[in-house]
Write a structure and sequence with these properties.
This protein is mostly helical. It has one domain (3-129): Four Helix Bundle (Hemerythrin (Met), subunit A). The chain is 84% helix and 0% strand. The protein is built from 4 helices and no strands. Helix 1 (3-32) runs antiparallel to helix 2 (42-70) and helix 3 runs antiparallel to helix 4 (104-129).
Length: 130
Amino acid sequence: MTATAAAALYAALCLVLMLALKINVGRVRQAERVMFGDDGREPLQRAQRVQGNATEDIPITLIGLFALAFLGGPVWLVHTLGALFFFGRILHAIGLGGSSGGSFGRMWGTVLTLLVMLATALACFWFVIF
């Protein structure tokens, strides 16, 4: 598998995750009988925030993974960063989706996401400079 194919694998996994989060918002919207906005309903606000947070973090991180692959980053590095990132997004979705307060999943999902974003940026800098 090439580094570009590895990045595409994590793009595909994140697409499936985004689809699941989108379907969940629709499911909660229907259950709460709110067709527009959130009507102050906490379950709907939480579902929308889970999807929104993923929408904020997934695109830029995938751009970084593809950039790393195009710069000649090793396959193992793209896989490591991609797998940790995807696992972090799953943890975050479960953690925030289950509670609006702090949780193991929310905290570690956020930490993994931030660490992968930083490591991806640093790796891109490394392969550009050296």
